[in-house]
Amino acid sequence: MRLSLTLLLPLLMATGGTAVAQDDGGGIDDLLGSIPEIAAEEPVDEKPKPPPEVTFPQYTSDVSATVLAAWQPKKSALKDARAQAQLGIKIDENGQITDIRAIKLSGHKKFDQSCLDAINAADTLASPPPPLRDAAADGVVVTFSAAWALKRG
Predict the structure, then answer these.
(1) Is residue 64 part of a domain?
(2) How far apart (Å, rounded) are the C-alpha atoms in residues 68 and 143?
(3) What pLDDT shows up at residue 79?
(4) Which H/E stretch holds residue 145?
(5) Are both 74 and 37 inside the same structural domain?
């Protein structure tokens, strides 16, 4: 009888290297029966990890990314590559936009209107986590830049 190394190695490891394979006619069942039981490890009681806390700057960045993804200014709105606008968005606990206010306008009507259109197109944003709801209700500032829009293409 030939024992494969795959069968012999676990036997040797389980018995501290003292097992000797003999062909005494008992067969593989006797050989496997001689392997001592190894107690199973106690299961580790791992509690699921809570999701990482989102900071207000991270939430603001996510809101800005959503709004800027919806921003599709026409080329005529991007005539001045230096044009920038900042709009404040108040967001309720469900991610609904409750108010929009101008913080800084570019002075270019088409550019500023395209910024407002982007916020309206975004419509519903990510719901702020409970610890950030008051801050989101006070407003998140989104900055629009013609240079960024031209680079994005």
Answers:
(1) yes
(2) 9
(3) 94
(4) strand 140-145
(5) no
Q: Structural domain of residue 128, as residue ranges?
A: 56-152
Residue 127 near residue 94, CB atoms below 8 Å: yes
Alpha-helix residue ranges (DSSP H) falling in the chain: 5-14, 27-33, 56-70, 109-122, 133-138, 146-152
- Residue 151 corresponds to which tokens in the numbers above? 């680079």
Residue 119, in any domain of the structure: yes
What is the residue-level pLDDT of the chain in tens, covering all 153 positions? 444 445 545 544 555 555 454 555 566 677 667 777 767 777 666 777 766 788 999 999 999 999 999 999 999 999 999 999 999 999 999 999 999 999 999 999 999 999 999 999 987 899 999 999 999 999 999 999 999 999 987
One domain for residues 80 and 148: yes
Structure token digits, residue 148: 């960024």
Cα(54)–Cα(68) distance, integer angstroms: 20
- The 3-state DSSP class for residue 96 equals strand
Please report, to the nearest 10 degrees, the dihedral formed by the alpha carbons of residues 21, 25, 27, 29 taken in order.
-100
On whether residue 116 sits in a domain, the answer given is yes
